[in-house]
Amino acid sequence: MDAALLSPPRRLRVPIDNRWGAGEMAVLDFGDPARPVDLIFVHANGFNAATYRCLLSPLASSLRIWAPDLRGHGRSSLPIFAQPKTNWRDHRDDLLGLLAKLDGPPAVLAGHSMGGTASLLAAAVAPSRVSSLVLFDPVIWKRSSTLMFNLPLAARLLAGAPISRAALRRRRLFDSREQALAAYRGRGVFKGWPDAVLADYLSDGLTETPDGLSLSAAPEWEAANYAAQAHDPWRALRRYGGPVRILKAERGALTSLSPHPRGLPNVTVEVVPGGGHLFPMTHPDVARDALFEAAV
């Protein structure tokens, strides 16, 4: 078996300094460190880069992959709530800082859910650094909803949405990782997840504290991200001219684009049969094939 598959990803600390506050972004570095970065993969809200280790590790024999922990997630030390949270431009700007660290050719930028949308927003600002986009059920509301979410005070209204309230109710402390694994296995959003993927999520999703193991992504920050929708992915789609491949969930999709979106000839949209919003965890082969095809 290839050594890249046997070796765990390296852990990098990448300095980021922008208007949202300075700190370090934690990055998992898969594959041959001597080659340029081929692919950057960005996780969904509330999760972390390690959650996708089973998805990304098999690609490490052919590709070098960076998987960052977004601000407020995993092992990143970037401050949160430095400014009122109304949109995902903080994640966009952090990804722009990460893209600026690349010393090779443009890379594929990919992501899941919020990570996909943040990747799209970043690519629209720095298209010369992104060879193509691969987005797994990115959060792209209908155009009318996007306009509404950009109105003043929209974030306050969205803070009362069921998904935001549910995030605030998440259990915060566990006595052990085994306890957390037992609490999550087969329940809620984790239904259908293999134990290995759930264990990977918990590896960086829990942080040791004097009171026990605490969620790395604070429930308040996760809820704030759900409520912060005052950005415009439709404008970003128009601005980024490179290839955009979107894989959309068949059930509970958060992507409102049709298979042939009008006025966006560079965008393709495919539905993942049987896949829900978290299909990268439950249907990893589909997601992995899309990443490989874009990066080779």
Characterise the protein shown here.
The protein is an alpha/beta fold. It has one domain (3-160, 230-295): Alpha/Beta hydrolase fold, catalytic domain (Rossmann fold), CATH 3.40.50. It has 13 helices and eleven strands. The strands form two sheets. The protein has an eight-stranded mixed β-sheet, with helices on both faces. Strands 7-9-8 form a three-stranded antiparallel β-sheet. Helix 4 links the parallel strand 5 (107-112) and strand 6. The longest helix has 12 residues, at 114-125. It is globular, with a radius of gyration of 18 Å. The model has no long low-confidence stretch (mean pLDDT 95).
What structural category characterises the helix and strand content? alpha/beta
- Count of alpha/pi helices: 13
Query: Gyration radius, to the nearest Å?
Result: 18 Å
CATH architecture: 3-Layer(aba) Sandwich
Count the E strands: 11
- Beta-strand content: 15-25%
Uncertain runs: none
CATH superfamily: Alpha/Beta hydrolase fold, catalytic domain
Order of helices and strands: HEEEHEHEHEHHHEHHEEHHEEHH
Highest CATH level, the class: Alpha Beta
Major β-sheet strand ordering: 1-2-4-3-5-6-10-11
| Fold-level CATH name | Rossmann fold
Descriptive tags:
single chain; about 300 residues; alpha/beta; Rossmann fold; eight-stranded mixed sheet; 13 helices; 11 strands
